[in-house]
Amino acid sequence: MDFTGLIKKYEVLLAVEKKGEGSYVNGKWVETLTETQFMGTFLPLTHKDLRITEAGAYTTQDKKLFVVEDLKDINGDPLNLKDGDVIINNQGEFEIAQELEAPEVVNYKKYIAKKRVDS
Q1: What pLDDT digit, counting tens, does each position of 94-114 carry?
Q2: What CA–CA distances, in Å, run from 45 to 10, 59, 75, 80, 90?
Q3: Which domains does the chain have, with CATH numbers?
Q4: Measured between alpha carbons, how far is residue 97 from residues 69, 82, 114 in Å?
Q5: Which partner for 110 in 30, 81, 92, 102 could form a disulfide, CB atoms 3.0-4.6 Å apart?
């Protein structure tokens, strides 16, 4: 079954915060963060998604993120998402935990993003 139409229907503007090169400032290492926006679709994890992961690895607060394979930011520049990138939307911040295979969607990549919770 092809879910491409459903994913496209719920696409929204999201922001991603990526760690940059970083540099030393007054003898201390300071990581550079860059933020850009892109279009993507957040969907809740299914019971099947929760069942196939290691016990306790993911919760119902975590999300699946779908993006087109040749993802570009809102300026048209290529954008590659990777583990550790932080996706920001109106529901909070979500850290990309892993990329998954997405056989049910053509020309899309699928990620699991863990909800960041303040300690």
Answers
A1: 999 988 876 666 788 999 999
A2: 15, 8, 30, 22, 18
A3: 4-115 (2.40.10.270)
A4: 18, 8, 6
A5: 102
